[in-house]
Amino acid sequence: MGSSPNITLHDKAFRPYLSAAELAAAVEALAGRLSADYAGRRPLFVVVLTGGFMFASDLLKRFSGDCEIVFIRVASYEGTSSTGQVQEILGLREDVQGRDLILVEDIVDTGTTLHHLLPTLLAKNPASMEIAALFFKPASLRHELTLNYVALEIPNDFVVGYGLDYDGLGRNLPEVYVAA
Ligand code: 5GP
Ligand code: MG
Ligand code: MG
């Protein structure tokens, strides 16, 4: 992507990394796989805000078949020493028992967020649960996670744009940038 110029967010320079066309192709391919795998099953997509909003919008436009969509936020705080980090799920009012859940995430980096979130969701007894992630950084992963639906694997670099922020900025960018 040589055509777009570098940008600055706050104090930091970023260079173009993935074009809108490259993102669209990866998202479309993932939507096709999900559409085939969930044909006739009416999954419940659980979109994790805020970073997942743009990815979810493009992914779900391309999902064919019946589905339902909800949005959640995750608040983390330190629990007791036995429970460690606790993830509270905000906004999930639907009964997920017996449902085929697909968690829509912006990026899996160390995997810590999902490592704590998945048990909370699994305790609600869904029929199945998968993760659809826009980005996955395999070199950073520190927990055991099964990721069957990843749009793009990327190196261990900090990226912004297409929903992802650097200290609040950059979420609106239609392309993805990497620290220059
Ligand atoms: P994890 O818990 O897997 O280490 O990290 C997940 C969260 O860290 C993401 O939802 C995101 O908020 C943040 N994160 C990890 N890597 C990046 C990155 O390259 N860029 C941005 N903008 N956020 C990231
Ligand atoms: Mg996230
Ligand atoms: Mg962020």
From TrEMBL:
Q: Which domain of life is it from?
A: Bacteria
Q: Which Gene3D superfamilies match?
A: 3.40.50.2020
Family indicated by similarity? Belongs to the purine/pyrimidine phosphoribosyltransferase family.
State the PANTHER family in the record. HYPOXANTHINE PHOSPHORIBOSYLTRANSFERASE, HYPOXANTHINE-GUANINE PHOSPHORIBOSYLTRANSFERASE
State the species of origin. Answer: Hymenobacter nivis
- EC class (word): transferase
Name the coenzymes or cofactors required: Mg(2+)
Q: Does the keyword Repeat apply?
A: no
Tell me which EC number(s) this protein carries.
2.4.2.8
Q: Which residues form the Phosphoribosyltransferase domain?
A: 21-166
Name this polypeptide is given: Hypoxanthine phosphoribosyltransferase
Q: Which reaction does it catalyse?
A: GMP + diphosphate = guanine + 5-phospho-alpha-D-ribose 1-diphosphate; IMP + diphosphate = hypoxanthine + 5-phospho-alpha-D-ribose 1-diphosphate
Q: What is the lineage of its organism?
A: Bacteria, Pseudomonadati, Bacteroidota, Cytophagia, Cytophagales
Alphabetized GO MF terms: guanine phosphoribosyltransferase activity; hypoxanthine phosphoribosyltransferase activity; magnesium ion binding; nucleotide binding
An example Pfam family from this entry, by short name, is Pribosyltran
